[in-house]
């Protein structure tokens, strides 16, 4: 069974700091990769996804992620965070089947 | 176009009570899912339905049942609620695959079992 690990459970940053959230998965075959964001009190929204092609994927709100196949990683980055980025971020993996496996989530707090 | 809707938004139950969580989607997607979200554990799949008329167990199905009533609706039933089922429940739907292989989530139901 596949698994997804998010190493940072809680991250606190000041506004304008750079962000990198780690995500590693354990499945060896072809995968589809996702980052979802959950703002306080809201449902999950898709930030970005990778299916194939350019391993550097750009998403909404200035986020990007890089797929490194050799490291089984799909880290999320943003050059300069804002207070409004305070949220919980989830990495997820789909091995082209019906099921999506989520990581445990990373809570990001951005101090104004 | 509401996407995925869930009712109720909040519910408090006593141990042993039963209830059904409702989910509907207007995205014309074939696959629908029920997840529970617990702190530090991400989302865990309870049941899913790949298409109308089919349902399958996910990672944590014990204590739950589901019904795929039609293409739009997928309900989750707790027959005898337990405190361990206190959680936030999310319904999701998914398109047919390929570049549309993305799950879209509802707003969630926060359930407390006393």
What is the tally of helical segments of chain A?
A: 0
Radius of gyration of chain A: 13 Å
Q: Could you estimate the helical fraction of the residues of chain B in percent?
A: under 10%
Oligomer: heterodimer
Number of helices of chain B: 0
Structure at a glance:
The complex is a heterodimer of chains A (112) and B (114). With 112 residues, chain A is an all-beta fold.
3D architecture notes:
The complex is a heterodimer of chains A (112) and B (114). Chain A has 112 residues and is mainly β. In chain A, the strands form 3 sheets. In chain A, strands 2, 5, 6, 10, 11 and 12 form a 6-stranded mixed β-sheet that branches. In chain A, 37% of the residues are buried. In chain A, a hairpin with a 4-residue loop joins strand 8 and strand 9 (73-78). In chain A, 0% of the residues lie in helices and 50% in strands. Chain B has no helices and 11 strands. In chain B, strands 2, 4, 5, 6, 9, 10 and 11 form a 7-stranded mixed β-sheet that branches. A 4-stranded antiparallel β-sheet of chain B has the order 1-3-8-7, with no helix packed on it. The chains are: A mainly beta (112), B mainly beta (114).
Q: What's the arrangement of secondary structure elements?
A:
The complex is a heterodimer of chains A (112) and B (114).
Chain A: E1 4-5, E2 10-14, E3 19-21, E4 24-25, E5 32-38, E6 45-50, E7 56-58, E8 64-68, E9 73-78, E10 87-94, E11 100-102, E12 106-111
Parallel strand pairs in A: 2-12
Antiparallel strand pairs in A: 1-4, 3-9, 5-6, 5-10, 7-8, 8-9, 10-11, 10-12
Chain B: E1 4-7, E2 10-13, E3 19-25, E4 31-37, E5 43-49, E6 56-57, E7 64-68, E8 74-78, E9 87-94, E10 103-105, E11 109-113
Parallel strand pairs in B: 2-11
Antiparallel strand pairs in B: 1-3, 3-8, 4-5, 4-9, 5-6, 7-8, 9-10, 9-11
